[in-house]
């Protein structure tokens, strides 16, 4: 009860006490009807009446503070570390009305300010692994009566380490006569702070001149891989692609992978394209559109030599074009296949290059393959119509 001009009742065991105070209060600054219209005051009086009626009839009243979880919505997938995680928690009121009221501030005494406030909040429990102790007030507006639902917008900051974190929320009457009450709403926040793991299988180490097959992969056990890309010396390549004609010497394959929450990993390997010790010879012809393409070459590389030795001659009898090698630059042998690269004259004009790919399918040579590519864009090849390819 209020005594003199000091003190004020906030909770009462009997509603009649509050109602008596309402009619006999001599508060100086505001008339009594202002406090009579305060919704927190009204809610307390109404619940007190309900308890009084129950007590009169010998009925056990329902709990004054009670709530059940109506709905919880948070992202089900993984989120990035430090990301903003937005969700909602809806609580069903099972007790006295939840509402806003008004109270005075004497911070600038004797000027008194009458301002809105509420004691009804949603609070993250002490066991919450994301934002323990965080409080969110009910929305201003109509009271939340028993049987009605209050929905709270929850904004969290995801932890910085990978893992699954539990966030727990419970209703709170934030005053001396309240405390946490009702069911606990829970949700899982899954964080992926780890970038994908990249594996590069080929090319690595030393690789014979010719064609290199690119093989790489990326895995991410949490949110999964969203994208993966690669390049050799800055030129894009794809997994499984056969890259032909890389110059002798070192090259760098770089792979970049990003997971579904934006974590990115990059890995590089340096590999070498080298000459292969051995010898390749060929002579014969291939079918062209009308006539033949005749070829003859020999290429040999010995350990420690600066380049292969040998020569190439090719003639297109459809067009009359003649190709003669100037220098052999590189030779690579893999199994029964060989690739030879060099500079050449085309119709006695220098400044060109050629690449020859051959396959030795055994004697007598009728199924051997010969292909020639020139820097001009010319490309012909196929099964030898006659002749033989021998890879030593």
Please, could you describe this protein's structure?
It is a single chain. The chain is built from three helices and 28 strands. It is mostly beta strands and 392 residues long. It folds into three domains: 67-191, Immunoglobulins (Immunoglobulin-like, Sandwich); 197-274, Sandwich (Immunoglobulin-like), CATH 2.60.40; 278-391. Strand 21 and strand 22 (309-316) form a beta hairpin. Helix 1 (15-24) crosses helix 3 (39-56). The longest helix is centred in the first third of the chain and has 18 residues, at 39-56.
Spell out the blueprint of helices and strands:
Blueprint: H1 15-24, H2 32-36, H3 39-56, E1 67-73, E2 78-79, E3 84-93, E4 100-105, E5 113-118, E6 120-124, E7 135-137, E8 149-157, E9 163-173, E10 179-191, E11 197-202, E12 205-208, E13 211-213, E14 215-219, E15 225-232, E16 235-237, E17 242-244, E18 249-259, E19 264-274, E20 278-287, E21 292-301, E22 309-316, E23 322-334, E24 337-346, E25 349-359, E26 369-374, E27 379-383, E28 386-391
Parallel strand pairs: 2-10, 12-19
Antiparallel strand pairs: 1-3, 3-8, 4-5, 6-7, 6-9, 9-10, 11-14, 13-17, 15-16, 15-18, 18-19, 20-21, 20-28, 21-22, 22-23, 23-24, 24-25, 25-26, 26-27
Helix pairs in contact: 1-3
């Amino acid at each position: 009860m209020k005594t003199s001009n000091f003190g004020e009742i906030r909770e009462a065991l009997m509603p009649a006490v509050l109602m008596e105070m309402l009619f006999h209060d001599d508060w100086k600054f505001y008339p009594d009807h202002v406090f009579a219209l305060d919704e927190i005051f009204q809610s307390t009086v109404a619940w007190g009446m309900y308890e009084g009626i129950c007590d009169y009839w010998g009925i056990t009243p329902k709990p004054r503070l009670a709530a059940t979880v109506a709905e919880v919505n948070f992202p089900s997938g993984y989120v990035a570390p430090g990301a903003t995680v937005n969700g909602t928690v809806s609580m069903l009121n099972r007790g006295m009305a939840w509402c806003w009221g008004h109270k005075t501030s004497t911070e600038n005494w004797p000027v008194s300010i009458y301002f809105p406030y509420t004691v009804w909040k949603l609070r993250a429990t002490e066991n919450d692994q994301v934002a323990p102790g965080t409080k969110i007030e009910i929305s201003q507006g109509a009271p939340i009566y028993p049987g009605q639902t209050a929905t709270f917008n929850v904004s969290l900051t995801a932890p910085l380490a990978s893992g699954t974190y539990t966030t727990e929320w419970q209703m709170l009457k934030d005053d001396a006569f309240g405390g946490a009450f009702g069911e606990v709403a829970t949700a899982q926040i899954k964080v992926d702070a780890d970038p994908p793991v990249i594996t590069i299988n080929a090319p690595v180490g030393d690789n014979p001149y010719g064609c290199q097959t690119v093989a790489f992969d990326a895995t991410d056990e949490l949110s999964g891989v969203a994208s993966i890309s690669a390049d050799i010396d800055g030129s894009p390549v794809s997994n499984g692609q056969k890259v032909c004609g890389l110059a002798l010497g070192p090259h760098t394959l770089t792979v970049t992978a990003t997971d579904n929450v934006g974590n990115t990993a990059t890995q590089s390997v340096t590999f070498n394209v080298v000459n292969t010790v051995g010898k390749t010879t060929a002579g014969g012809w291939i079918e062209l559109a009308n006539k033949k393409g005749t070829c003859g070459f020999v290429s040999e590389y010995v350990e420690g030599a600066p380049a292969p030795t040998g020569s190439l001659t090719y003639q297109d009898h459809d067009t009359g074009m003649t190709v003669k090698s100037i220098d052999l630059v590189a030779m690579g042998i893999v199994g029964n296949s060989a690739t030879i690269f060099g500079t050449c004259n085309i119709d006695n004009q220098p400044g060109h290059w050629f690449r020859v790919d051959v396959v030795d399918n055994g004697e007598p040579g009728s199924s051997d393959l010969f292909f020639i590519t020139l820097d001009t864009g010319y490309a012909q090849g196929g099964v030898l119509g006659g002749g033989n390819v021998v890879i030593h």
